[in-house]
């Protein structure tokens, strides 16, 4: 039955510019009349050839997910899609959506998420478009979507009631088929094909090994229940906070030492009997790995995964290359050098890894912000990272902290930390970055906080596959001894500006590896303030979040 397409007149909203990972705004902004519709229409207008094709649709279950899904289903029918694969209850983690797009050769996908940002009526909402390779749309596409939002005059929908998404099965909106799929099955099957599940099951069955996975009331609950406690047989109760809630139980579903403090503390308390901890974020693409009284830094984690690839069935044949975002520590570079493989340095954001993965140039990718993944999908993948670690632990039969310490002994330690200054007035943050950029030519050869600066620039990236250029991706200050300080403004926040300062120092001497991170980096913190005038311009004397 064909349905009448309804054209609803609309006018543009300012500021519908996708950031590091899609459009993120307060729920209150998204709830304005025609706001979501305008952006979705701009996506559909930017596409071509979607008639009769398959769209994948789902989200992290945050507040407004359910309403937005129904709106998008109607608009997809009006845009001529032949079929939508939608997760049951509107749920699909970001990596699962990527897996579903790839497995079913969909035209693309829409993921509703604001990742680790707060949820609930006063929290954040977000939407991003992924291409047929399963990865986030590139800048050329998101720029085109933004331009379209600025000239939009109508959106298109059909008159159809809401679809019951609480059970898997099929429904239709006019000629468009709606397949309500199990959000976990395809992703779980893919993960099972990569790792040695028997061996991991053996580890999880050992009485001396106890694991906790904290789903932070976000999307990974159902995935972790099904994979860890289901397929791998971990004891019930291994997964905590495993039911997705629209407001994530009031917290930030951000697996860092601040928001996942409960997990970190449990692993620090020997009475808990826990030997390994892990957590994931709102939409399931980030991971946190915790050993006994030891939080693994994401940059180190990427290096450890690369160094141990031969133990993992999917990667035992060798890595084509590795890639990290520019602010991520250079720990993985050292592993790549030893393996004799390429190490790519990209701007922040997963979208830049896509072309390297598609071209077969890189197998593993990672970011300091707790994102790691591989060529199995085109997003970072939280549970993938946890299973990779479990597979390593099962084969090497030693605790996570020992594995990292041995890694440092072998490769040296890239001591690393990120300092975030949140909610800075946008004008001040822009001024800080502008003045810092203006100062760049004078920095090389000078001393700052007593430290000699070797080089300073604003990171620009040329994609080795398609030659596209991305400018102004973060200011880098490189010291004579190889230490680095990097400055950039967050592209995912929804309130004011967040200044991120990334600090890194290489320590070869094993006797110095246990010096506390912040202590080892203190001279660089002083340099960062001197060079960028953080306190003078923003009035802040210390960061809000240290990770
Ligand atoms: C942050 C992280 C970045 C990550 C992105 C999406 O972006 O820093 O590594 O790709 O979230 O998860 P930012 O807020 O720094 O722009
Ligand atoms: Zn995320």
TrEMBL record:
It is an enzyme of class 5 (isomerase). Its EC number is 5.4.2.2. Its cofactor is Mg(2+). The keyword Isomerase applies. Residues 16-154, 204-290, 299-411 form the Alpha-D-phosphohexomutase alpha/beta/alpha domain. InterPro entries: A-D-PHexomutase_a/b/a-I, A-D-PHexomutase_a/b/a-I/II/III, A-D-PHexomutase_a/b/a-II, A-D-PHexomutase_a/b/a-III, A-D-PHexomutase_C_sf, Alpha-D-phosphohexomutase_SF, PGM. Keywords: Isomerase, Magnesium, Metal-binding, Phosphoprotein. The keyword Plastid does not apply. GO terms for molecular function: metal ion binding; phosphoglucomutase activity. This is phosphoglucomutase (alpha-D-glucose-1,6-bisphosphate-dependent).
């Amino acid at each position: 039955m064909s349905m009448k397409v309804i054209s609803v007149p609309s006018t543009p909203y300012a500021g519908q510019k996708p950031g590091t990972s899609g459009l993120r705004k307060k729920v209150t902004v998204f709830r304005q009349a025609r706001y979501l519709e305008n952006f979705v229409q701009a996506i559909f207008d930017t596409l071509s050839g979607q008639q009769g094709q398959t769209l994948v649709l789902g989200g992290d279950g945050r507040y407004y997910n359910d309403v937005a899904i129904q709106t998008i289903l109607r608009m997809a029918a009006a845009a001529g899609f032949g079929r939508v694969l939608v997760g049951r209850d509107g749920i699909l983690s970001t990596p699962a959506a990527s897996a579903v797009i790839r497995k079913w050769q969909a035209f693309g996908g829409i993921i509703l998420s604001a990742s680790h940002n707060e949820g609930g009526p006063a929290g954040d909402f977000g939407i991003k478009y992924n291409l047929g390779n399963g990865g986030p749309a590139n800048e050329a596409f998101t720029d085109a979507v933004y331009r379209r939002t600025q000239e939009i005059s109508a959106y298109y929908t059909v008159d159809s009631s809401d679809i019951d998404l609480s059970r898997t099965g099929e429904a239709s909106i006019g000629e468009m088929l709606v397949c309500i799929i199990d959000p976990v099955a395809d992703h779980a099957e893919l993960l099972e094909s990569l790792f040695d599940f028997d061996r991991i099951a053996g580890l999880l069955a050992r009485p001396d090994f106890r694991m906790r996975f904290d789903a932070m009331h976000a999307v990974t609950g159902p995935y972790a229940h099904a994979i860890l406690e289901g397929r791998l047989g971990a004891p019930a109760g291994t997964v905590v906070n495993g039911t997705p809630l629209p407001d994530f139980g009031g917290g930030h579903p951000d697996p860092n030492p601040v928001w996942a403090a409960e997990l970190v503390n449990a692993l620090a308390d020997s009475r808990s009997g826990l030997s390994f901890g892990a957590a994931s974020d709102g939409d399931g693409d980030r991971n946190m790995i915790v050993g006994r009284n030891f939080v693994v830094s994401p940059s180190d984690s990427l290096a450890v995964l690369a160094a141990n690839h031969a133990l993992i069935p999917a990667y035992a044949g060798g890595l084509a290359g590795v890639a990290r975002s520019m602010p991520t520590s250079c720990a993985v570079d050292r592993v790549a050098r030893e393996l004799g493989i390429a190490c790519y340095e990209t701007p922040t954001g997963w979208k830049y890894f896509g072309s390297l993965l598609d071209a077969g140039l890189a197998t593993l990718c990672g970011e300091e912000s707790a994102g790691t993944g591989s060529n199995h999908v085109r997003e970072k993948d939280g549970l993938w990272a946890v299973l990779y670690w479990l597979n390593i632990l099962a084969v090497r039969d030693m605790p996570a902290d020992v594995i990292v310490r041995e890694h440092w002994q072998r490769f040296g330690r890239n001591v690393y930390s990120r300092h975030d200054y949140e909610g800075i007035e946008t004008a001040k943050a822009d001024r800080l970055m502008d003045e810092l950029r203006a100062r760049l030519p004078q920095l090389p050869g000078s001393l700052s906080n007593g430290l000699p600066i070797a080089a300073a620039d604003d990171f620009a990236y040329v994609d080795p596959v398609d030659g596209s250029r991305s400018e102004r991706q973060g200011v880098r200050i490189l010291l004579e001894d190889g230490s680095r300080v990097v400055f950039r403004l967050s592209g995912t926040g929804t309130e004011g500006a967040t200044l991120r300062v990334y600090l890194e120092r290489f320590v070869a001497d094993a006797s110095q590896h246990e010096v506390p991170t912040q202590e080892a980096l203190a001279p660089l913190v002083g340099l960062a303030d001197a060079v960028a005038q953080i306190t003078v311009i923003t009035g802040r004397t210390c960061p809000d979040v240290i990770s």
